[in-house]
Amino acid sequence: MEPLERRRGLIEERLVSVVDGVEPDRLSDELRHVALSGGKRVRPTVTVLACETVGGEAAEAVDFGVGIELVHGASLVIDDIIDRSELRRGSASAWAEFGHGPAIVASDGLLGEAFALLSADPRATRVVAEAMVELGVGEATELSEVPETEAEYMTLARRKTGALFRAAAELGAIAADADAVAIEALGEYAERVGVAFQIRDDVLDAVADPATLGKPAGRDAEMDRPSVVQVTDLSPEEADERARAEAERAMDALSRIDAADSEARGYLEDLAEFVVDRER
């Protein structure tokens, strides 16, 4: 098994065990539908790789990685309700499969399981709570105070997507008991990767084939939501250039770390390149 797939395997195994342990069975089934229906596991992989980069072991970060993935899954359930999106990762979204009420309960259940895992370290709980506040502000802004400039869009992207990426990396550093300088550098790296990810996501929504994307395309324009293409005069190609610039700044932040594991840092560098080249 490739080294990166081995790390993802650790995450997937723990994720399955957490979801399977949920009661009652109906709630477990709903959480399974959300958490185990695919996904690239980018955020928990960042958690594990960040931990290893600063000298920790992968196993030390798995619970925190699963925790951030569950928080992410909970946010997607709500996003799909807001967007009225019936597809997520090529399958029925939670509300389309179970109805609005059960979907909201599933989102709550995912958050509960996440914080049960994060509660092992108060620092981890604080990091994710702060990220959720930023995410909430971002979601509220998206619905009520539409950004009108590129700078306002970038602030929204940092809150909406960058915050959870930052938390993912900081959790890995916390698991490795890294110092404050390393935690901040990894956090900045991941936040910028998250912003690049969001910009590319907006571009894909505007130009991608839904069959390739795994969810409906064109939703931002249809719902008048503030994507980089809607808010600015940037063409999709120019927006992709902005994403690449963020990825380069992420690399700069990563270069400030005296890595204990060069392989793990190399995978983080690969991720910064992947998020701007992905097709779904």
From TrEMBL:
CDD domains documented for this protein: Trans_IPPS_HT
Documented EC number(s): 2.5.1.-
GO MF annotations in UniProt: metal ion binding; transferase activity
Ranges in a coiled coil: none
SUPFAM superfamilies tied to this protein: Terpenoid synthases
Keywords linked to the UniProt accession: Isoprene biosynthesis, Magnesium, Metal-binding, Transferase
Record InterPro entries: Isoprenoid_synthase_dom_sf (IPR008949), Polyprenyl_synt (IPR000092), Polyprenyl_synt_CS (IPR033749)
Cofactor: Mg(2+)
GO terms of biological process kind: isoprenoid biosynthetic process
PANTHER family registered for this protein in UniProt: FARNESYL DIPHOSPHATE SYNTHASE
Protein family: Belongs to the FPP/GGPP synthase family.
UniProt name for this protein: Polyprenyl synthetase family protein
The organism of origin for this protein: Saliphagus infecundisoli
